[in-house]
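Following up on my earlier thread - several people asked me to post the actual chain instead of describing it. Fair enough. Here it is, all 769 residues.
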Amino acid sequence: MGLHSLISLTTTILFLSLLPVHTESAQPPFSCDSSNPSTSSYPFCKTSLPISKRARDLVSRLTLDEKISQLVNTAPPIPRLGIPGFEWWSEALHGVANAGPGIHFNGTIKAATSFPQVILTAASFDTGLWYRIGQVIGTEARAVYNAGQANGLTFWAPNINVFRDPRWGRGQETPGEDPMVTGKYAVAYVRGVQGDSKNGEQGNPDQHLQASACCKHFTAYDLDDWNGVDRFHFDARVSLQDLADTYQPPFRSCVEQGKASGIMCAYNRVNGVPACADFNLLSLTARGKWGFNGYIVSDCDAVKIMFDSHGYTKTPEDAVVDVLKAGMDLNCGSYLQEHTKQAVEQKKLPVSEIDRALRNIFSIRLRLGLFDGNPAKLPYGNIGPDQVCSKKHQALALEAAQNGIVLLKNPDRLLPLPKSKTLSLAVIGPNANAPKTLLGNYAGVPCKSISPLQALQSYVKNTIYHPGCDNVECATATIDEAVKIAKEVDYVVLIMGLDQTQERESHDRVHLELPGKQQELITNVARVAKKPVVLVLLSGGPIDISSAKDDRTIGSILWAGYPGEAGGIALANIIFGEHNPGGRLPVTWYPQDFVKVPMTDMRMRSDPSSGYPGRSYRFYKGETVFEFGYGLSYSKYAYEVSSITKSVLHLNQSSTVADYKLVSELGQDLCDKKKFSVKVGVKNQGEMAGKHTVLLFLRKAKPSNGSPIKQLLGFHSIFLKAGERAEVEFELSPCDHLSRANEAGLMVMEPGLHFLVVGDEEYPLTTIV
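Reply from S.P.:
Thanks for posting it. Predicted structure:
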């Protein structure tokens, strides 16, 4: 969210002080108290009625002023109806956080489990892990609320914008550059947080929510502040083709499969129209085509900037009218509170539009069980403080960090390091003793805080530490001192990279190299060390480390993202062989030259005529430092396509052979009938057990104009003992997995030879349309 929002915590506190007195210590306020006859008789309090009828009844009882007061994130109480205040803005990107006004760690609960930043969690390619993280976040969110330390239960996460440009400061918050992976992450996280089963049917409009998740930022938002262009003024010019196969699929998955109860519309314009004022985007697409059933909230002050920054509307009242008529329901900020009444009085806005928004808003509070009487007697009411920062939850944070960390280089098996009592170790670098850096942005207070240095010291008593730089920016480096230390020890671990001073919300990078004198420090230390050094990188976005990749004095490289509260332990466990790394990069690592590409160019596909290289592994035609999906292990894994149910797919229903066929013309029945499965055998040929991700790609023998170079079809994470072999199965639908978007944004099937690709193995597949 934009933390520049005009909503003040002082106002929040004032509103909360007006809550009706239904509170006990360590219990949140609630509506529809069965012991209060003046409120319990309202139809909106009757749990036997459908949510839609209860919401309609509640809204019908509000005055115009009361209605308007509820259209903003800090909603005041309505004492005459026994309705408490509610704060919609809470954060839980990778753990329950006090980054918004809704959560407070000032009572019984002082902290919450802080998982790795999303980009590293995505590197595990493990939907089961993602779901379990969502479950923990939802459980801890409800526990904080039950303890009276939360003013709401709506959490504005996950961030499922595609990581389009490596410079983007918020790329760290996302699951990476692949729309399918991003969509699967969204589904797993949302289902976990909201209390749904991982794979079962859900999304019943009357179903209780453990907590509410909100997919953001809808849509084509992936620039914060670059070269004088900021997110508040940016007009993202996006083709229908790129919208269809890159920018929109994660949100569609989030709605259709994840059943998210919230969507946040973005600051930017999309093809000239502010996202929060786009009727086609919010109403026709999200609600109409995808069946979204929830509330739509603006990013903070996104409505205000339509008039103040975009100049999109002539008056503030026009901005209010445009967003409500487009289908937005809630304003993060105070703009709707300040200008909606005038819009009604000027007869620009019918009250029916306000009522529509309020029904969506109150439906969520009803689904959270906040109008069902005493919450202690309801589902989720018994989740207590003991379930926050539990040993089980902290163990999951460690598992997530260990399974996400990516081994980028280890040609001579420098890693794992030996466990010897006589070993001496130097730990050098500005990120070695910086536990806060491990957390990334939108982090709360972690259960514990252990730096990589402290974790490594638990393995080697004779450890010498030197920061090497004054900070991550590394404008000043004490290279001579670091070199002197490196000469004296058996092994050197350099812990370098970025932090939130280099990449964050409102701050995109201008280059892809290590900051300041970091590279100089690495080179000089590696040159004098007794053995090749270990280089650890903390960062959200890719870094051009071509020189380190090719330098033989650097024996091993690990990328650890921002690995969360257990990240230091995870790194030490991997470095000393307690855990076998198996993470894979969820983004392409580009060379420094990529910064010549304007960040404002939203095109995914390359344009050879202008030298535009394209973006992401699907379309980029240029040199890479590391490819999407790259990642090594202490074990070697071998693949074979053990079986495939179809090698020729006939998708034509006549004797005429076409150049392409619209998926919509094939029909759902034919698409379902043509589904097929692929089984891949995978064997751990190493001496160490490990978790391994099998990535199945598709490439066309002769790509047509606009086709991806290759496309990820699916992924499976599997644990294999040393020498163990197992099979993983991929269920594929040609209409979903073998189609592509044409220039009109429609999905089409094309005939020809394709190859299913897993590792170095390829299997031919022919489609006839």
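Confidence is low (pLDDT under 50) at residues 2-25. That should answer part of your original question.
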